[in-house]
Here is the input.
Amino acid sequence: MAVLIVEGDLRLGELWKRHLQREGAEVVLTGCAEQACTALSDHPIDVLVVDLDLPEGGALSVADFASYRRPEARVIFVTAQSFFSDGSIFRVSPNAAGLLGADARPEDLAALVEHHSPKPVLARQVSRADEVL
Here is the structure.
């Protein structure tokens, strides 16, 4: 499973990245929309974790670019605001798969990423175990 994290707070992004890597994901971390679009062009991405509160904006443009460049990729938005708490993010972004608060535990983020990944990490771990037997 390949994950792109687009998070303005790089300390928080690193925390999420390390947690997802421990779960077996390949993770690319960027801090702005421009870097995210480059990463989407350069890497096969299954799931994006995008901070709606990016310092320079552009979170929705990243999701829009992903729908063009990686249409199969799912987007999980993260925000500290309550603006989209009514579910309207799903009308604004057709590839939106989830919305989490910025204070969500890394375990919760990992579970949501795993759920929306077309290549679950746990399934690959089981298949590796079967190969050993």
